[in-house]
Amino acid sequence: MDEEKTTLTEQILAEEGAPAEAEVLAKGEDVLAETPEEGKPKKKKKGGKWQSKNQWKAWLYLLPALAILAVFTVWPIINTVRMSMLYRVDAEGNVIGYHNLDAMRGFKYQFGFANFASAVHYSGFLNALGNTMLLTVITVPISTMLALLIAVALNSIKPLKKVYQTVFFLPYVTNSIAIGMVFMAMFHMVGIDLSNPQSVGIINSIIKAFGGKPINWVDMGSTKVANMVVLILFIVWNALPFKILVLLGGLQNVDKQYYDAAKVDGASRFRVFWRVTVPLLSPMIAYVVITGFIGGFKEYTSVVGIFGDAMGPTGGAHRLDTMVGFIYDNINGKTELSTQGRASAAALILFAIIFAVTMINFYVSKKKVHY
Question: Contact, 302 vs 171, CB < 8 A?
Fold first, then answer.
């Protein structure tokens, strides 16, 4: 009887055009979900017109930040490219780059790449580029290796761990110029006659204690090699805190099971360090190397902190000039025929060098870094 009622019901529903119950069940929950319930309004779908109408609010919130970026980042970049392309030729045939005061006086400028050739052939350019390259190539590998060893040591010790971390991080929050002045005092010799000084400084006192002779590190008559040694020590010491912080954070996130497995296999400490720690830290190492090279090519405050804005000891001005120092000197008119055009060209050359080195680092890291 029940089967007859069911069959009859299906026939009635079919005659009225409604889907049979079997068909509804066969189609599943999607059909039921698409059928709106009586008395309830349809819900608006997310996205589409509703989302596009409210995008102006997001742009309104971003407007202050975008305005600051446009004024202090985007426009200076565009203006640097513009000034690097403007130059004029004086009566003697010298290429004079763009300068805003000359432009106000009514000088007419040509458009071209003469500023780049002028910057490259300028007497102080090659010295600045060589110093920058030398400092970067020496300081970045040394500071990275030392930071890795110190980070591993700090991660291993238990007592006074926070105290040691604070001590190693202090230079990062200290002004570079102030630290440079302290380094200057440590290597500085005091006296009218430096062959027989009244005070030889802290470092020379340590050298004398071990039977050595005092060295003129940073004063008049000092050699460029001695100046470079002091500068390299300062840059390495100043770069350690940030790198230690990054590498120590990476070490603390390494899964301990790798070290446990190495102990079970009887691996030595050096093998664990080289085969486990270094590969697992390779993303962090790649990061500090890339940022280290970028910072090394922009080195300036370290030289000024020790040797002042002369960029060298007394009697050896601009001996330790860097690319950034060369750019500043041309902007401020401290060199012959200084112009903003040549400074802008030098800045773009420095950008191209940093970009090329960074791309090389990225290419190498793709093969050596284990994510």
Answer: no
Q: Measured between alpha carbons, how far is 350 from 340 in angstroms, rounded to an integer?
A: 15
Looking at the structure, do residues 193 and 71 belong to the same domain, yes or no? no
Which residues contact residue 217 at a Cβ distance below 8 angstroms, ignoring those fewer than 6 apart?
187, 188, 189, 201, 203, 204, 226, 227, 229, 230
Q: Report the amino acid identity of residue 352.
A: A
Using alpha carbons, select from 308, 316, 140 the residue that is nearest to residue 232: 140
pLDDT tens-digit readout, 83-102: 999 888 887 777 788 877 77
DSSP at 334: -
Tell me, yes or no, whether 169 lies in a domain.
yes
**187 belongs to a structural domain:** yes
Residue pLDDT, tens place only, 269-292: 888 888 888 888 999 999 999 999
pLDDT single digits (tens) 1-59:
444 444 544 554 455 454 444 454 444 444 444 445 555 555 555 555 556 667 888 88
Q: Tell me, what DSSP letter sits at residue 158? A: -
Residues 126-152 have pLDDT tens digits of 999 999 999 999 999 999 999 999 999
Task: Mark whether 68 and 133 lie in a shared domain.
Answer: no
Task: Tell me the angle at which helices 161-169 and 123-156 cross, rounded to the nearest 10 degrees.
Answer: 170
Distance, C-alpha 178 to centroid of its chain: 22
Shortest CA distance to 329 belongs to which of 83, 125, 79? 125
Mean pLDDT value of segment 67-74 = 94
Does residue 310 lie in a domain region? yes
Residues 163 and 82 in one domain: no
CA distance 192 to 62: 61
Q: SS3 of 47, please? A: coil
Quote the pTM value: 0.77
- SS3 of residue 191 by DSSP: coil
Q: Of 92, 115, 138, at which residue does a domain stop?
A: 115
What secondary structure letter does DSSP report for 190?
A: B
Same domain, 94 and 203: no
Residue 200 lies in domain: 118-368
By three-state DSSP, how is residue 87 classified?
strand
Q: What is the CATH number of the domain that holds 209?
A: 1.10.3720.10
The angle formed by the CA atoms of residues 23, 29 and 30, to the nearest 5 degrees, is: 90
